[in-house]
Specification:
Bound molecules: zinc ion
Strand order of the largest sheet: 1-2
Structural class: mainly alpha
Shape: globular
Order of helices and strands: HHHHHEEHHEEEEHHHH
Number of helices: 11
Number of domains: 3
Distance between the termini: 67 Å
Strand content: under 5%
Protein backbone atom coordinates (compact mmCIF):
# COMPACT_ATOMS: atom_id res chain seq x y z
CA UNK A 1 0.00 0.00 0.00
CA UNK A 2 2.67 2.46 0.96
CA UNK A 3 4.63 1.68 -2.23
CA UNK A 4 1.53 2.47 -4.30
CA UNK A 5 1.14 5.75 -2.48
CA UNK A 6 4.75 6.72 -2.93
CA UNK A 7 4.27 6.08 -6.65
CA UNK A 8 1.11 8.22 -6.54
CA UNK A 9 2.98 11.12 -4.97
CA UNK A 10 5.84 10.84 -7.46
CA UNK A 11 3.47 10.31 -10.40
CA UNK A 12 1.37 13.35 -9.62
CA UNK A 13 4.44 15.63 -9.83
CA UNK A 14 4.30 16.05 -13.64
CA UNK A 15 0.51 16.52 -13.55
CA UNK A 16 0.78 19.38 -11.09
CA UNK A 17 3.63 20.94 -13.02
CA UNK A 18 1.26 21.40 -15.99
CA UNK A 19 -2.03 22.37 -14.39
CA UNK A 20 -2.94 23.65 -10.94
CA UNK A 21 -6.59 22.75 -10.49
CA UNK A 22 -7.34 20.04 -13.03
CA UNK A 23 -5.25 17.32 -11.31
CA UNK A 24 -6.65 18.41 -7.94
CA UNK A 25 -10.18 18.09 -9.30
CA UNK A 26 -9.49 14.65 -10.80
CA UNK A 27 -7.95 13.46 -7.52
CA UNK A 28 -10.96 14.70 -5.57
CA UNK A 29 -13.37 12.92 -7.94
CA UNK A 30 -11.34 9.75 -7.63
CA UNK A 31 -11.36 9.84 -3.84
CA UNK A 32 -15.06 10.62 -3.65
CA UNK A 33 -16.23 8.05 -6.20
CA UNK A 34 -13.60 5.29 -6.32
CA UNK A 35 -16.32 2.80 -7.32
CA UNK A 36 -16.48 4.35 -10.82
CA UNK A 37 -12.83 3.53 -11.41
CA UNK A 38 -12.75 -0.18 -12.41
CA UNK A 39 -10.41 -2.24 -10.27
CA UNK A 40 -10.06 0.54 -7.70
CA UNK A 41 -13.21 -0.21 -5.70
CA UNK A 42 -11.23 -1.73 -2.85
CA UNK A 43 -9.08 1.36 -2.26
CA UNK A 44 -9.23 2.59 1.32
CA UNK A 45 -11.63 5.53 1.54
CA UNK A 46 -10.13 8.75 2.89
CA UNK A 47 -10.77 9.48 6.55
CA UNK A 48 -14.14 11.00 7.47
CA UNK A 49 -12.90 14.52 8.10
CA UNK A 50 -11.16 14.90 4.71
CA UNK A 51 -12.37 18.16 3.20
CA UNK A 52 -11.36 17.21 -0.33
CA UNK A 53 -14.36 14.91 -0.84
CA UNK A 54 -16.93 17.49 0.23
CA UNK A 55 -19.39 18.55 -2.45
CA UNK A 56 -18.58 22.25 -2.39
CA UNK A 57 -14.87 21.49 -2.77
CA UNK A 58 -15.65 19.31 -5.80
CA UNK A 59 -17.78 22.07 -7.35
CA UNK A 60 -15.21 24.80 -6.70
CA UNK A 61 -12.35 22.66 -8.05
CA UNK A 62 -14.49 21.79 -11.10
CA UNK A 63 -15.20 25.44 -11.88
CA UNK A 64 -11.57 26.42 -11.34
CA UNK A 65 -10.47 23.59 -13.67
CA UNK A 66 -12.77 24.78 -16.45
CA UNK A 67 -11.55 28.37 -16.03
CA UNK A 68 -8.00 27.07 -16.11
CA UNK A 69 -8.57 25.13 -19.34
CA UNK A 70 -10.17 28.16 -21.01
CA UNK A 71 -7.69 30.67 -19.59
CA UNK A 72 -4.68 28.71 -20.76
CA UNK A 73 -5.82 29.09 -24.36
CA UNK A 74 -5.27 32.84 -24.16
CA UNK A 75 -1.68 34.07 -24.34
CA UNK A 76 -2.67 37.13 -22.28
CA UNK A 77 -4.08 35.21 -19.35
CA UNK A 78 -1.18 32.79 -19.49
CA UNK A 79 1.24 35.68 -19.27
CA UNK A 80 -0.64 37.16 -16.36
CA UNK A 81 -0.46 34.06 -14.16
CA UNK A 82 2.74 32.43 -15.34
CA UNK A 83 4.98 33.64 -12.52
CA UNK A 84 2.54 33.07 -9.65
CA UNK A 85 1.76 29.62 -11.00
CA UNK A 86 5.19 28.18 -10.25
CA UNK A 87 4.50 28.73 -6.51
CA UNK A 88 0.79 27.95 -6.47
CA UNK A 89 1.29 24.55 -8.11
CA UNK A 90 3.61 23.07 -5.40
CA UNK A 91 1.18 24.34 -2.76
CA UNK A 92 -1.87 22.64 -4.28
CA UNK A 93 0.28 19.55 -4.84
CA UNK A 94 1.00 19.44 -1.08
CA UNK A 95 -2.63 19.94 -0.05
CA UNK A 96 -3.93 17.23 -2.39
CA UNK A 97 -1.24 14.69 -1.56
CA UNK A 98 -1.73 15.16 2.18
CA UNK A 99 -5.35 14.24 1.55
CA UNK A 100 -4.47 11.33 -0.71
CA UNK A 101 -2.52 9.62 2.04
CA UNK A 102 -4.81 7.33 3.96
CA UNK A 103 -4.28 6.66 7.62
CA UNK A 104 -2.74 3.22 7.12
CA UNK A 105 0.04 4.47 4.88
CA UNK A 106 0.65 7.53 7.04
CA UNK A 107 1.34 5.09 9.87
CA UNK A 108 3.71 3.07 7.70
CA UNK A 109 5.47 6.24 6.56
CA UNK A 110 5.77 7.54 10.08
CA UNK A 111 7.35 4.32 11.23
CA UNK A 112 10.02 4.57 8.58
CA UNK A 113 12.17 7.26 10.10
CA UNK A 114 14.79 8.30 7.62
CA UNK A 115 17.86 9.97 9.15
CA UNK A 116 15.66 11.42 11.88
CA UNK A 117 13.32 12.91 9.27
CA UNK A 118 9.74 11.89 8.79
CA UNK A 119 9.71 10.15 5.39
CA UNK A 120 6.29 11.56 4.53
CA UNK A 121 7.58 15.09 4.76
CA UNK A 122 10.80 14.25 2.97
CA UNK A 123 8.77 12.82 0.08
CA UNK A 124 6.29 15.70 -0.01
CA UNK A 125 9.06 18.28 0.26
CA UNK A 126 10.91 16.64 -2.60
CA UNK A 127 7.64 16.54 -4.58
CA UNK A 128 7.01 20.25 -4.02
CA UNK A 129 10.50 21.18 -5.16
CA UNK A 130 10.10 19.02 -8.26
CA UNK A 131 6.70 20.55 -9.09
CA UNK A 132 8.20 24.02 -8.74
CA UNK A 133 11.20 23.13 -10.90
CA UNK A 134 9.12 21.46 -13.62
CA UNK A 135 6.56 24.29 -13.60
CA UNK A 136 9.40 26.80 -14.12
CA UNK A 137 10.82 24.66 -16.91
CA UNK A 138 7.38 24.54 -18.52
CA UNK A 139 7.05 28.32 -18.24
CA UNK A 140 10.39 28.75 -20.04
CA UNK A 141 9.34 26.26 -22.69
CA UNK A 142 6.10 28.16 -23.33
CA UNK A 143 8.00 31.45 -23.57
CA UNK A 144 10.28 29.73 -26.06
CA UNK A 145 7.26 28.63 -28.15
CA UNK A 146 5.87 32.17 -27.98
CA UNK A 147 9.18 33.48 -29.28
CA UNK A 148 8.79 31.41 -32.41
CA UNK A 149 5.08 32.05 -32.86
CA UNK A 150 4.42 35.21 -30.92
CA UNK A 151 0.83 35.86 -31.88
CA UNK A 152 -0.18 32.23 -32.03
CA UNK A 153 -0.68 32.58 -35.78
CA UNK A 154 0.21 28.95 -36.22
CA UNK A 155 -1.79 27.94 -33.15
CA UNK A 156 1.31 26.43 -31.53
CA UNK A 157 0.37 27.79 -28.12
CA UNK A 158 -3.19 26.57 -28.37
CA UNK A 159 -2.27 23.13 -29.71
CA UNK A 160 0.27 22.79 -26.90
CA UNK A 161 -2.35 23.78 -24.35
CA UNK A 162 -4.87 21.20 -25.59
CA UNK A 163 -2.14 18.58 -25.53
CA UNK A 164 -1.42 19.43 -21.91
CA UNK A 165 -5.08 19.20 -20.93
CA UNK A 166 -5.32 15.74 -22.44
CA UNK A 167 -1.98 14.71 -20.91
CA UNK A 168 -3.23 15.68 -17.46
CA UNK A 169 -6.50 13.77 -17.90
CA UNK A 170 -4.99 10.66 -19.49
CA UNK A 171 -1.98 10.93 -17.23
CA UNK A 172 -4.26 10.85 -14.23
CA UNK A 173 -5.97 7.65 -15.40
CA UNK A 174 -2.60 6.19 -16.27
CA UNK A 175 -1.42 7.10 -12.80
CA UNK A 176 -4.36 5.40 -11.18
CA UNK A 177 -3.72 2.16 -13.05
CA UNK A 178 -0.04 2.24 -13.88
CA UNK A 179 1.91 4.79 -11.89
CA UNK A 180 5.38 3.62 -12.91
CA UNK A 181 4.62 3.71 -16.66
CA UNK A 182 3.40 7.24 -16.28
CA UNK A 183 6.46 8.46 -14.38
CA UNK A 184 8.70 6.97 -17.09
CA UNK A 185 6.68 8.48 -19.96
CA UNK A 186 6.86 11.96 -18.44
CA UNK A 187 10.54 11.60 -17.66
CA UNK A 188 11.18 10.84 -21.33
CA UNK A 189 8.93 13.65 -22.57
CA UNK A 190 10.70 16.22 -20.42
CA UNK A 191 14.12 14.96 -21.46
CA UNK A 192 13.11 15.44 -25.12
CA UNK A 193 11.87 19.01 -24.41
CA UNK A 194 15.11 19.96 -22.67
CA UNK A 195 17.25 18.50 -25.47
CA UNK A 196 15.22 20.32 -28.17
CA UNK A 197 15.44 23.64 -26.36
CA UNK A 198 19.19 23.29 -25.81
CA UNK A 199 19.64 22.36 -29.45
CA UNK A 200 17.71 25.44 -30.61
CA UNK A 201 19.87 27.75 -28.50
CA UNK A 202 23.04 25.99 -29.67
CA UNK A 203 21.96 26.29 -33.29
CA UNK A 204 21.44 30.04 -32.89
CA UNK A 205 24.88 30.35 -31.29
CA UNK A 206 26.49 28.34 -34.08
CA UNK A 207 24.92 30.51 -36.76
CA UNK A 208 26.65 33.60 -35.41
CA UNK A 209 29.51 34.86 -37.55
CA UNK A 210 32.61 36.77 -36.44
CA UNK A 211 32.83 40.45 -37.39
CA UNK A 212 35.73 40.90 -39.87
CA UNK A 213 36.75 44.12 -38.15
CA UNK A 214 36.65 43.32 -34.39
CA UNK A 215 36.05 39.53 -34.26
CA UNK A 216 32.95 39.66 -32.04
CA UNK A 217 30.23 37.14 -32.91
CA UNK A 218 27.17 38.61 -34.66
CA UNK A 219 23.75 37.24 -35.53
CA UNK A 220 23.48 35.98 -39.13
CA UNK A 221 20.98 38.77 -40.03
CA UNK A 222 23.04 41.60 -38.47
CA UNK A 223 23.60 44.56 -40.79
CA UNK A 224 26.16 46.21 -38.52
CA UNK A 225 28.39 44.66 -35.87
CA UNK A 226 26.76 45.10 -32.44
CA UNK A 227 30.18 45.99 -31.00
CA UNK A 228 32.13 48.13 -33.51
CA UNK A 229 29.23 49.01 -35.89
CA UNK A 230 31.19 47.82 -38.95
CA UNK A 231 29.03 46.81 -41.93
CA UNK A 232 28.84 43.00 -42.14
CA UNK A 233 29.86 41.38 -45.42
CA UNK A 234 27.37 38.47 -45.52
CA UNK A 235 23.89 39.34 -44.24
CA UNK A 236 21.46 36.43 -44.26
CA UNK A 237 17.76 36.82 -45.03
CA UNK A 238 15.31 36.14 -42.21
CA UNK A 239 12.38 33.70 -42.53
CA UNK A 240 8.84 34.00 -41.19
CA UNK A 241 9.71 32.07 -38.02
CA UNK A 242 12.67 34.39 -37.48
CA UNK A 243 15.04 31.67 -38.67
CA UNK A 244 18.15 32.18 -40.79
CA UNK A 245 17.72 31.66 -44.52
CA UNK A 246 20.69 30.56 -46.59
CA UNK A 247 20.11 33.32 -49.16
CA UNK A 248 21.99 36.58 -48.67
CA UNK A 249 20.41 40.04 -48.51
CA UNK A 250 20.61 42.24 -51.61
CA UNK A 251 18.48 45.20 -50.52
CA UNK A 252 19.71 46.23 -47.06
CA UNK A 253 16.96 48.81 -46.55
CA UNK A 254 14.26 46.23 -47.23
CA UNK A 255 15.99 43.79 -44.88
CA UNK A 256 16.08 46.36 -42.07
CA UNK A 257 12.33 46.94 -42.43
CA UNK A 258 11.80 43.21 -42.33
CA UNK A 259 13.86 42.95 -39.11
CA UNK A 260 11.68 45.69 -37.61
CA UNK A 261 8.56 43.73 -38.58
CA UNK A 262 9.92 40.84 -36.47
CA UNK A 263 10.63 43.32 -33.65
CA UNK A 264 14.35 42.92 -34.09
CA UNK A 265 16.98 45.63 -34.07
CA UNK A 266 17.45 46.84 -37.69
CA UNK A 267 21.18 47.19 -37.08
CA UNK A 268 22.43 44.19 -35.05
CA UNK A 269 19.40 41.89 -35.51
CA UNK A 270 18.87 41.23 -31.76
CA UNK A 271 15.37 40.59 -30.49
CA UNK A 272 13.84 43.66 -28.81
CA UNK A 273 12.43 42.63 -25.44
CA UNK A 274 10.08 45.59 -24.98
CA UNK A 275 7.08 46.33 -27.24
CA UNK A 276 7.91 50.06 -27.06
CA UNK A 277 8.17 51.74 -30.47
CA UNK A 278 10.82 54.25 -29.48
CA UNK A 279 13.51 52.38 -27.58
CA UNK A 280 17.22 51.70 -27.50
CA UNK A 281 18.54 48.27 -28.53
CA UNK A 282 19.94 46.50 -25.46
CA UNK A 283 22.66 44.87 -27.44
CA UNK A 284 24.09 47.64 -29.67
CA UNK A 285 22.48 50.86 -28.39
CA UNK A 286 20.88 51.68 -31.75
CA UNK A 287 17.73 53.87 -31.53
CA UNK A 288 14.78 51.93 -32.95
CA UNK A 289 12.56 53.60 -35.59
CA UNK A 290 15.10 56.36 -36.21
CA UNK A 291 16.42 54.97 -39.47
CA UNK A 292 14.27 53.46 -40.97
CA UNK A 293 11.63 55.64 -39.32
CA UNK A 294 7.95 55.10 -38.54
CA UNK A 295 6.85 56.49 -41.93
CA UNK A 296 9.16 54.17 -43.86
CA UNK A 297 7.72 51.30 -41.86
CA UNK A 298 4.12 52.31 -42.59
CA UNK A 299 4.91 52.56 -46.31
CA UNK A 300 6.61 49.15 -46.24
CA UNK A 301 3.55 47.62 -44.56
CA UNK A 302 1.16 49.42 -46.94
CA UNK A 303 2.94 47.94 -49.97
CA UNK A 304 2.48 44.44 -48.54
CA UNK A 305 -1.14 45.32 -47.77
CA UNK A 306 -1.93 46.21 -51.41
CA UNK A 307 -0.38 42.99 -52.64
CA UNK A 308 -2.05 40.71 -50.11
CA UNK A 309 -5.53 42.24 -50.29
CA UNK A 310 -5.36 42.00 -54.11
CA UNK A 311 -4.26 38.39 -53.87
CA UNK A 312 -7.03 37.63 -51.36
CA UNK A 313 -9.64 38.69 -53.93
CA UNK A 314 -8.34 36.06 -56.36
CA UNK A 315 -7.89 33.42 -53.64
CA UNK A 316 -11.44 34.17 -52.47
CA UNK A 317 -12.84 32.35 -55.49
CA UNK A 318 -11.66 29.07 -53.92
CA UNK A 319 -14.38 28.21 -51.38
CA UNK A 320 -13.39 28.07 -47.67
CA UNK A 321 -9.67 27.38 -48.25
CA UNK A 322 -9.20 30.71 -50.04
CA UNK A 323 -10.50 32.68 -47.09
CA UNK A 324 -8.43 30.72 -44.58
CA UNK A 325 -5.18 31.18 -46.55
CA UNK A 326 -5.88 34.91 -46.93
CA UNK A 327 -6.59 35.34 -43.22
CA UNK A 328 -3.43 33.50 -42.15
CA UNK A 329 -1.28 35.47 -44.61
CA UNK A 330 -2.79 38.75 -43.43
CA UNK A 331 -2.11 37.79 -39.79
CA UNK A 332 1.50 36.88 -40.41
CA UNK A 333 2.53 39.63 -42.85
CA UNK A 334 0.17 42.51 -42.11
CA UNK A 335 -1.20 42.45 -38.56
CA UNK A 336 1.62 40.89 -36.52
CA UNK A 337 4.22 43.50 -37.57
CA UNK A 338 1.97 46.12 -35.92
CA UNK A 339 0.77 43.98 -33.03
CA UNK A 340 4.32 43.18 -31.94
CA UNK A 341 4.66 46.82 -30.90
CA UNK A 342 1.41 46.93 -28.94
CA UNK A 343 1.56 45.85 -25.29
CA UNK A 344 0.08 42.44 -24.53
CA UNK A 345 -3.02 42.20 -22.39
CA UNK A 346 -4.50 45.57 -23.26
CA UNK A 347 -6.01 44.17 -26.42
CA UNK A 348 -7.78 41.21 -24.77
CA UNK A 349 -11.36 42.35 -25.39
CA UNK A 350 -10.41 43.66 -28.80
CA UNK A 351 -9.11 40.19 -29.54
CA UNK A 352 -12.33 38.58 -28.33
CA UNK A 353 -14.33 40.90 -30.58
CA UNK A 354 -11.96 40.14 -33.46
CA UNK A 355 -12.46 36.39 -32.99
CA UNK A 356 -16.21 36.86 -33.36
CA UNK A 357 -15.72 39.22 -36.31
CA UNK A 358 -13.37 36.70 -38.00
CA UNK A 359 -15.90 33.94 -37.50
CA UNK A 360 -18.71 36.00 -39.09
CA UNK A 361 -16.50 36.79 -42.06
CA UNK A 362 -15.48 33.17 -42.29
CA UNK A 363 -19.16 32.21 -42.68
CA UNK A 364 -19.56 34.81 -45.42
CA UNK A 365 -16.26 33.69 -46.89
CA UNK A 366 -17.50 30.15 -47.40
CA UNK A 367 -19.49 31.27 -50.45
CA UNK A 368 -18.37 34.83 -51.17
CA UNK A 369 -14.67 34.67 -50.27
CA UNK A 370 -13.67 37.11 -53.02
CA UNK A 371 -15.71 39.79 -51.22
CA UNK A 372 -15.29 38.65 -47.60
CA UNK A 373 -11.51 38.12 -47.67
CA UNK A 374 -10.50 41.59 -48.94
CA UNK A 375 -13.03 43.37 -46.68
CA UNK A 376 -11.83 41.37 -43.69
CA UNK A 377 -8.20 42.26 -44.43
CA UNK A 378 -8.91 45.95 -45.12
CA UNK A 379 -10.95 46.49 -41.95
CA UNK A 380 -8.52 44.72 -39.65
CA UNK A 381 -5.45 46.23 -41.28
CA UNK A 382 -6.62 49.76 -40.63
CA UNK A 383 -7.53 48.99 -37.01
CA UNK A 384 -4.00 47.71 -36.26
CA UNK A 385 -2.34 50.45 -38.27
CA UNK A 386 -4.29 53.10 -36.40
CA UNK A 387 -3.35 51.64 -33.03
CA UNK A 388 0.29 51.52 -34.06
CA UNK A 389 0.43 55.11 -35.35
CA UNK A 390 -1.41 56.39 -32.25
CA UNK A 391 1.21 54.72 -30.07
CA UNK A 392 4.09 56.00 -32.21
CA UNK A 393 2.81 59.58 -31.93
CA UNK A 394 2.25 59.33 -28.20
CA UNK A 395 5.76 57.91 -27.81
CA UNK A 396 7.47 60.69 -29.76
CA UNK A 397 5.56 63.42 -27.90
CA UNK A 398 7.17 62.43 -24.59
ZN1 LIG B 1 32.79 44.39 -35.07
ZN1 LIG C 1 20.92 46.37 -31.98
Amino acid sequence: MSVAQIVTILGSIPLFSMRTFLPAFLAAIFLTYPEYFPGMGDIAPPSEGTFITRNWVLVVLGILSILEIIGDKSADIRNLVKNAETYLKPLIFLVINLNLLDEASVEVLEEMQWAAFDLKWVLLGFGMLMVHWLASLRRDFISFLEDIDEDDNFYMGRIGSWMEDSLVIFGFFLLVWAGIVMVTVYGLAIAIFVVLQKRYVRKLEKQKTPCPSCGNLNLPFAVNCYHCKALQPNIHKIGIFGQRKSALVEDVRQHQLKLLSHRKCPSCGSKLESPAIHQKCNSCGNLIFQDPGVNDYLKYQDRKFYKISGLSFILGFIPVVGFVISAVMANVYLFSPYRRYLPKGTSFFTKLWIKFFTFMFFLLGVALGFIAAPIYIILRYFVWKKKFTARAERGSAI
